[in-house]
Amino acid sequence: MRNVLVVFALLATACGARSYISAGDATFPVSLSSAVQGPDGTVLVGSDLQTVGAFRLDYKKCNMLWTLVPLFFRTEDISDEIDEQVRRAHGEAVINLTVQSSATVWNVLTLFGVLPDCSNVRIRGEIVIRRGLASRAL
């Protein structure tokens, strides 16, 4: 019985979805930290920047067979969404970008990764401009 529980635990933990994120074609700089490189190459932080908006993007990724078979493209290019939201906020960059992934209710119902299972991906960040300057692209 114990061996059955171990196998069950191993198979159940293999459920989930795999996703990669890129922003290589974004016009505006994107940073995972609170600093971003300015147009002259200097690092801008804290008092150099002013938040003018929030970047928000949510999507779902689904796979099956323990993430071996993606049901959608594995790489999510967020470049266009970055550019659109930064322009809309009259910003110059995105800082403090965070990525969170969480299971959906469907994950509980999958049969040890054989049936499709999904994950919710949540991306957040701060849209900023250089403090004291009119908005121009960094």
Summarize the structure in words:
The chain has 138 residues and is α+β, with helices and mostly antiparallel strands. The protein has a single domain, classed as Hypothetical protein apc22750. Chain B (Translation Initiation Factor IF3). Helix content is 19%, strand content 38%. It contains three helices and eight strands; from the N terminus they run H-E-E-E-E-E-E-H-E-H-E. The strands form three sheets. A four-stranded antiparallel β-sheet has the order 5-4-8-7. A hairpin with a 5-residue loop joins strand 2 and strand 3. The longest helix is centred in the first third of the chain and has 12 residues, at 2-13. The N and C termini lie far apart (62 Å). Residues 3-14 have low confidence and may be disordered.
Instruction: Please tally the helical runs, counting DSSP H or I stretches of 4 or more residues.
Output: 3
Biggest sheet, open or closed, and with what strands and sense? 4 strands, antiparallel
CATH top-level class: Alpha Beta
Give the quaternary arrangement of the chains: single chain
Q: Give the radius of gyration.
A: 20 Å
Total number of strands: 8
Main β-sheet, spatial strand arrangement: 5-4-8-7
CATH T-level fold name = Translation Initiation Factor IF3
Helix coverage percent: 10-25%
**Count of the separate structural domains:** 1
Structural classification: alpha+beta
What's the mean pLDDT score?
79
- Straight-line N-to-C gap: 62 Å
Based on CA inertia axes, which overall geometry fits? Answer: elongated
Strand content: 35-45%
* Low-confidence blocks of residues: 3-14
Q: Give the CATH H-level superfamily.
A: Hypothetical protein apc22750. Chain B
CATH level-two architecture? 2-Layer Sandwich
The H-and-E topology, N to C, reads as HEEEEEEHEHE
